[in-house]
Amino acid sequence: EVQLLESGGGLVQPGGSLRLSCTASGLTFNSDAVSWVRQIPGKGPEWVCGISHYGDFYYRESVKGRFTVSRDNSKKSMHLQMDRLRIEDSALYFCAEANFASGGTWFFDQWGQGTLVTVSS
Amino acid sequence: QSVLTQPPSVSGAPGQRVTISCTGSGSNIGGIFTVHWYRQLPGMAPELLIYDNTNRRTGVPARFSGSKSGVSASLAITGLQADDEAIYYCQSYDSVLNAWLFGGGTTLTVL
Predict the structure, then answer these.
(1) Do A44 and B104 touch (CB under 8 A)?
(2) Which of A45, A96, B52, B70 could bridge to B102 as Cys pair (CB 3.0-4.6 Å)?
(3) Burial of B80 (0-12, 13-18, 19+ CB in 10 A)
(4) Which of A99, A101, A114 minimises the CB distance to B45?
(5) What is the pLDDT of residues A38-77, one digit of tens each?
(6) Residues of A whose CB is below 8 A from B48
């Protein structure tokens, strides 16, 4: 059974940092792209960042320079270092396995259950 | 305001057919990028239903089908069942924003 498990969420003050982790089981992690997608309750999902199996990084504009995604294939894990957090970064953060779509981009095949990040003073 | 626009809600009686639209622009759906559809139940993560416009994920019933034309895509659900009630999202890529995008979501109500 494919499983993605996120951890590391919590309450942090604006300007603070958090490190999220995602551990995979039941899938060939090394050959997969992976992404972080966040969702504010009641709103649609919002793609945050991703890393290809080649190690190419992709970030949405609003998190560039503040968030850093990394992966450790030997541990089938992915991490998201979030610095200089803003109130608007508050959301449920999902990790997702990404598969290649026609046209060379991704769709998100497997999802974890999410970890909640709350940025508040 | 999402770049990919979906109707906030649709509804239908059991057994009926409903369609959910997703409208974008030339830099996303209207270009070379394909559309994917997800279903989200309350308290759960989104679940992939359709990828690359028309392909059903393994295990998804044939009652679900996708299509794309121009700058729009649609998800059709036939033979509506009570457990089809969920929020449905479309997703694509935008070459101007250089980002993967989701629609704002459509809540399906089975009457």
Answers:
(1) yes
(2) A45
(3) buried
(4) A114
(5) 999 989 999 999 999 888 999 999 999 999 999 998 899 9
(6) 107-109
